[in-house]
């Protein structure tokens, strides 16, 4: 559907292309005599041809950028060694500690676990909404691409097209930040920082639940700030 909308907006993009080209020619050329000179006329002609190609083949350019960013994300996941969803497992020390807890101590532990599960569910929904918002942004950028691409026809308006491409690349690269954050979280979640000999079984389980919630808070915060991190990286 987004591809069909992109094709439908190309007609509007070509109309804006002529408008931006005319506005740029009027602003860059002081008089009509400047257009009769070969150098300014050739520059305007080349700019118009390149802008027309950007509107007509902009979708191919965006798909190439998307493929490159997807390759970066795939390389990060592959090199991390975490390719399955079940890699972040409960540490064996915590499993043994839960098995040794008696009935009376298991009651408050059960309550704490329910509260922790509720917080984890809420944070998970927040993270999923953030990831889905990124997907929506990619679709929206793809659909309206011909309109900002038409701005390349005029030199004064060319920054609109440049910022659009940089923003689209930034949205695609947000997936790399999200992937790195999830990898770091899975490593922390699988490696408890408390030792079995230091604390009692109940305290150890409580500490692990608190650590998981804390790491999940950091993960959700990093995922939500992925757009800001990419903007700082690309200078947007």
Question: What is this structure, in a nutshell?
Answer:
With 236 residues, the chain is an all-alpha fold. The chain has helices at 2-28, 32-36, 38-80, 92-100, 103-144, 146-149, 158-190, 201-224, 226-234.
Walk me through the structure.
The protein is mainly α. The protein is 83% helix and 0% strand. The chain has 9 helices and no strands. It has helices at residues 2-28, 32-36, 38-80, 92-100, 103-144, 146-149, 158-190, 201-224, 226-234. The longest helix is centred in the N-terminal third of the chain and has 43 residues, at 38-80. The radius of gyration is 27 Å and the shape is rod-shaped. The mean pLDDT is 77.
Keywords:
about 240 residues, mainly alpha
Quaternary state reads single chain
| Residues in helix, % | over 70%
Spans of at least 5 consecutive residues whose pLDDT stays below 50 are none
Main beta-sheet annotation? none
Classification by helices and strands:
mainly alpha
Compute the number of strand runs. 0
Order of helices and strands: HHHHHHHHH
Overall pLDDT, averaged? 77
Task: Please tell me how large the radius of gyration is.
Answer: 27 Å
Distance between the termini: 29 Å
In DSSP terms, counting alpha (H) and pi (I) runs of 4 or more, how many helices? 9
Global outline: rod-shaped
Strand content: under 5%
